[in-house]
Amino acid sequence: MQFIDLTDHRCPLVLVKIKMALKSLHVGEKLHLAIYDHLSRKDVPKFLQQQGHKVQIIINNKDKFEFVVTK
């Protein structure tokens, strides 16, 4: 499983980088992501679920938001 730390980035760059990373994955593969941007915390998981990906939140506190996306 690949880990990508996007805590230094803000939307829309967060979403762009995640989309690019997902393109290289095969169905069933997972991507572990860390983000900080407050807008991304809400919008990105929702968008990924709407696209048919499974999202599992691992950490959700004021300093960090980590989740795993299964393509």
UniProtKB/TrEMBL annotation:
The keyword Cytoplasm does not apply. GO terms for molecular function: transferase activity. Keywords: Transferase. Gene3D superfamilies: TusA-like domain. SUPFAM superfamilies: SirA-like. InterPro entries: TusA-like, TusA-like_sf. Residues 3-71 form the UPF0033 domain. It holds the Pfam family TusA. This is Sulfurtransferase TusA family protein. It comes from Parashewanella curva.
